[in-house]
Write a structure and sequence with these properties.
Blueprint (H helix, E strand, L loop, with lengths): L15 E3 L24 H14 L3 E8 L2 E11 L3 E2 L6 E4 L2 H15 L27 H6 L2 H5 L26 E2 L2 E2 L2 H6 L18 H15 L3 H13 L8 H6 L7 E5 L4 E5 L13 E3 L1 H13 L6 H8 L3 E2 L10 E5 L4 E5 L2 E9 L4 E7 L4 E7 L3 H19 L11 H16 L1 H5 L19 E5 L3 E9 L15 E7 L6 E9 L2 E8 L8 E9 L5 E8 L9 E7 L2
Antiparallel strand pairs: 1-3, 2-3, 2-16, 3-4, 5-10, 6-7, 8-9, 11-12, 12-13, 13-14, 14-15, 15-16, 17-18, 17-24, 18-19, 19-20, 20-21, 21-22, 22-23, 23-24
Helix pairs in contact: 1-11, 2-7, 2-10
Length: 568
């Protein structure tokens, strides 16, 4: 069953301080950093957090604050509805915060000198020199020149291509694998599919966030070390730091006996939380598969703040070095984001350097934030992704501004009004997709009847896989004005094998023009998207292909047009 708004019953557990873990010797602190400021996760702060969770429909949240030598951790709300509370030990999926650990592990492997044969030019080593047969891009120059640094800083020239991303098999559970054509998928197989995906820029020209490049880096690490990535991260990072509740495999996490939070999304129509029992992003390897908790991540951040073992001073400097400008079409909501490094966005907040990264899976959100100048950091987890990450950004900003002693009049806006405006705009855009994509058409719906049965079949692209369409009755989308929905039929294809399982819904507009709606099978309506589509029809009047034009990954760059040939 679903659950009505949890606003009436969120529980707050008592905050507690966690002493510095044995073996994590911190560097000496400056005098002004040794002042005991007390626990910021007070009862009053808990009420503030609870209010945000109620307002933005986030069932559970876990926080840890690192301030000098002290760590304070707290759980809010529920890890499993209706009444299992979140604790600091509760496990959550960490999503893209995995990337920083891949970056740190790779920096460590490069710095040790043990793999000089493979990393002959350090970060400037071309990936194809390590995994030559597998790493082939859509262009000879890019194939031979894209480096480890290009991939890790999202400047390879390849856009996201997330709708082409099929999850990687879980090597620790032979019965729990992602399969394509009945074959278990691997990092190697994913990397080999890159040759079928177009680039939208020359390498090193522009920032384009690309999860698939972190799959390539995962394959590099596994090839060079001869070990599964999860074992490498455990040996290099987790074990030395005492991160004993951190995993790269959902099956390992389950076997550990730790409480794992259930992911949820809020159904606006039904006014209830809906649970998602599995999250396919668990199969995303080094791009986003980490499973951990606030206590373990506080150890990770403390290591970075105090520049302690297991990393050398040179590796810590490597971790903090900016690699590329991140310009993605607009300023950050509340602070300046200008650079990207080894899985870190590098920003400034009130003149202080900030390293941060969010992680979003199907139904989990994670934030990691640290300010090396003042030895301060925050980690947060939520079992709701979009609004979960949003309110954790607000919470982190407040904690940081409290720590900096920023006067109320000088504090940055928390972005709530803009967030509400943007969500409403996104909903309107989705329900007005026809007029946005085809402004010359005056109505939503087709001007002439179309025989939907003619287009039934399977359409295939070597990079994006197969879509098998069937005809269904068209229903208004949630939140749509039903008076504008004149279509009676639609084509529907389901892709449960994607990292974010999707339904593609095709609705005819007029002539050759269609709208392709991408709707998550499990998850928030905020992730819905729409694209222009056209069927290619042969001289016999039968469709031979389907063309879909994905919006450009970065403003001003070329769009990605993908042709799916009819194969059945």
């Amino acid at each position: 069953m679903g659950f009505l708004s949890s606003a009436k019953a969120l529980l707050l557990s008592a905050p507690f301080a966690i002493p510095l873990a044995s073996g994590l010797a911190a560097m000496p602190l400056q005098r002004n950093e040794t002042v005991q400021r007390g626990n910021p996760l007070s009862d009053e702060f808990g009420r503030y957090v609870k209010g945000l969770m109620d307002e933005w429909k986030v069932p559970g949240l876990s926080l840890a604050v690192i301030d000098g030598d002290q760590v304070y951790a707290e759980g809010y709300g529920f890890s499993v509805l209706p009444d299992t509370p979140v604790k600091p030990e509760t496990l959550f999926l960490g999503g893209s915060t995995t990337k920083a650990q891949v970056g740190a592990a790779l920096a460590h492997l490069i710095s040790t000198g043990d793999y000089d044969t493979n990393f002959s030019r350090g970060w400037e080593t071309p990936i194809s020199s390590i995994i030559e047969e597998d790493f082939v891009l859509n262009g000879e120059w890019a194939t031979s020149h894209v480096t480890l640094e290009d991939a890790i800083s999202h400047r390879s020239g390849m856009p996201g291509h997330d709708f082409a991303w099929i999850g990687t098999s879980d090597p620790s559970d032979g019965n729990n694998t992602r399969k394509t054509n009945n074959t278990s998928n691997t990092n190697r197989a994913t990397v080999r599919s890159l040759r079928h995906l177009p680039l939208t820029a020359e390498p090193r020209v522009v920032f384009q966030y690309c999860n698939l490049m972190y799959i390539a880096l995962s394959h590099v690490i596994e090839t060079v070390t001869g070990s599964w990535l999860g074992d490498v991260l455990r040996n290099v990072i987790w074990q030395p730091l005492g991160m004993n509740s951190t995993f790269l495999s959902y099956s390992e996490a389950r076997r550990s006996g730790h409480q794992i939070a259930t992911g949820y999304f809020w159904d606006d129509e039904a006014q209830e939380y809906l649970a998602v029992d599995t999250d396919p992003v668990q199969y995303s390897s080094g791009a986003g598969a980490i499973i951990t908790n606030a206590i373990d991540y506080s150890k990770w951040v403390k290591c970075l703040l105090h520049e302690t073992a297991p990393f050398s001073a040179a590796t810590h400097q490597d971790i903090k070095t900016p690699r590329t400008l991140e310009i993605t079409g607009g300023a950050s909501r509340s602070w300046h984001v200008g650079d990207y490094g080894l899985g870190w966005r590098i920003a400034t907040l009130h003149g202080k350097a900030v390293y941060k990264h969010n992680g979003g899976t199907q139904n989990f959100g994670t934030n990691v934030f640290w300010m090396p100048e003042i030895k301060f950091g925050v980690v947060g987890f939520a079992n709701a992704v979009d609004n979960g990450n949003f309110i954790k950004d607000i919470i982190t900003q407040k904690l940081a501004e409290d720590r900096l002693g920023i006067a109320p009049s000088e504090r940055l806006d928390d972005g709530q009004k803009e967030r509400k405006r943007q969500l409403e705009q996104d909903k309107q855009n989705f329900n007005n997709a026809t007029n946005i994509l085809y402004p010359s058409h005056a109505t939503n719906g087709s001007s002439l009847a179309v025989d939907y049965d003619l287009f039934v079949g399977t359409y295939s692209n070597p990079g994006y896989g197969n879509y098998t369409f069937a005809v269904e009755d068209a229903m208004p989308f949630p939140g749509a004005n039903s008076t504008n929905q004149t279509l009676q039929k639609q084509l529907v294809a389901t892709r449960a094998d994607l990292i974010i399982p999707m339904q593609m819904i095709l609705r005819h507009v007029a002539g050759d023009d269609w709208v392709a709606y991408l709707i998550p099978i499990l998850g928030s309506a905020a992730k819905r998207s729409f694209y222009a589509a056209k069927f290619v029809v042969g001289v016999d009047g039968k469709p031979t292909a389907l063309d879909i034009t994905w919006q450009g990954a970065v403003e001003r760059l070329s769009e990605v047009a993908t042709r799916f040939d009819r194969v059945g």
